[in-house]
Design goal:
Number of helices: 21
Shape: globular
Largest sheet: 7 strands, mixed
Number of strands: 13
CATH architecture of the largest domain: 3-Layer(aba) Sandwich
Strand content: 5-15%
Radius of gyration: 28 Å
CATH superfamily of the largest domain: Alkaline Phosphatase, subunit A
Number of domains: 3
Strand order of the largest sheet: 3-4-1-5-8-2-9
CATH topology of the largest domain: Alkaline Phosphatase, subunit A
Distance between the termini: 86 Å
Structural class: alpha/beta
Length: 641
Amino acid sequence: MLQRSEFSRVLLRLWSRLTLTAAAAGLLFLLFYTLEHIDGWIVYSSTAEIVADTAVRVLAVLVLASVFGGVGATLTLIFAGREPGKLQRRADALVNAVVAIAALLCSLVVWRTAFMWADIVKLVTVPFAAKYSIWLLAAALGGVTLWRRRSQSLRRLEAGFAGTTTRRAVIAAGLGAAVVSVARPGLPLRSTVGAVLPRSQRRNIILVTFDALSAEDMSLYGYHLPTTPNIDAFARTSSVFDNFYSCSTFTTSSVASMLTGRYPLNTRVFHPWGHLRAENRDKTLLNELRAAGYRTAASVSNVLAYPPRLGVEFDIAPTPPVKGVIAAPPVLMDDALFLQNHERIILEYRMPKLFGTTQSRFPPELCFAQAEALLGLLTPPFFLWVHVMAPHDPYQPSPPFLNRFVGGGDMRMISEIGPLLYESSRQYNLRDQPTFDRWRLRYDEWIAQTDAAFGQFQSRLESRGTLSNTAVIVSADHGESFQGGTWGHASRTQLRQVVHVPLILRLPSQADGQRIVLVADQTALAPTILGVAGVPTPEWMDGKSLMPAINSAATNDVNGIAFTQFFQTDSVFKPVRHGTVGAINGKHQYVFDLESGKGSLYELAHANSQDNDIAASEPHIAASMREMILSRFPELRRGAA
């Protein structure tokens, strides 16, 4: 019969070994997770939030380790019988199994972190299959090495955590983390406001941008479905630009261009998690407006565009409005990654029951509600930026917009799309076009809901008299593709539906609308906002104000050039050599591939599929547009040589 003291000793030793092993593995995983997401620390509003969130994660690791150890000890006692020797053998076997699993997981995390870092800074560019083959092989070798050293590692763990004092310290650390997590501060408004600025006669400005809203799917721009009736009504007394294009094909680079008036080549914001670096942080629209006496605020529901993370300073920037998530900003960042990182998207597509959700966590109404709250904190003159995540995927409209165009069917989690995409890309076979046509209709429903939320926002502002001295601008960061074998955005091919975005500007008391065909791109947005504010455009901005076109009677002048740049495969620390640069005029689009040195020319009216390259038949036009690119960006000549 096992004595009570012997029973207690064996149980305590078993519990301690299992718990310490699991805790050590969990904390090591947390360390590498933190290093992998270190760029996200800028999302926090204060040091207290960093401490609180770290405490929550440490507490979670300790709690899970304790539960794991306790369950393991209980199961071992149940199945081991009452023989101390047998109990000890089962305990050792269980601990060895835990160590083996922990070794493999730790090795996976270490190498995954290394690959992530190398990919972010573009230190190396490795094909998808090769990258993951190397990762798994390296992880396996690392796991085997750790497994062979398990006995030595366990002795060190036990020696380090031996004694009553150390165990008490571990318990105290866990309790401390619990206290901090319970008493953690909320997510207050981030504010860098100094003294209250004096009132001014300058116009207030509200910029509303929608994530992944293509002009090609707006009834305002001739789309056959009534997707944007409220924006259409707003445009009747506004200046509408018919040929406005994004500077990139994904959010981060495009937003950086909108808020700086500079091309990605100059902002050096190349990647989805890119941000303005120290040498560029003073060159922003916000700094110019604040210097002119403006108060600035932002309601941004896409974490990739969240100003503190992007390196853009607003006076007030609350954390992104997200539905159904109560967590610190880095967890919100994980949700944004879930939407925008290809590998996580594939999980939702291929295993919708495990990873999918039928309701959007980024309803447009929530972003506009936060924007209205910000207006109560602002004094004129003010600049408010509202960046609405919708109609970005996963296209989850709510009734009554759900099934307005699709006409029914189970299409709530994009589970159909994942298997149709080529591995590690957003390309699909044209034989699957009917599926993407149906998802385009779901996207159109999502646009319709977003448009309705904008209409309600406008109505409330009008009823309160907010718009009496306020200019309102509507645009988008990029578009979305459902054609030409390419789905979504972030494409190096620069399809027209991805880069063609709306631009609508209504000045205070404007009564008449006008359509302007001048070709322009997003670098013109910041100078135009400064023009509305009566502030000169600084020399470092690449774009020019569109106010002369708005004030001129000659709105049918199509002259102008727009440039789009995709450098997601380039390093910010090296000269660009692998991306694509596009040029658009009133009739043609030219896309120059830096890596191959090849340029493709398309008639703009047929640039949605880019399957009809006319560079060979129109060599003079192709050469002229290529020279436009190289003249505008002379540093590209070396790569083009």
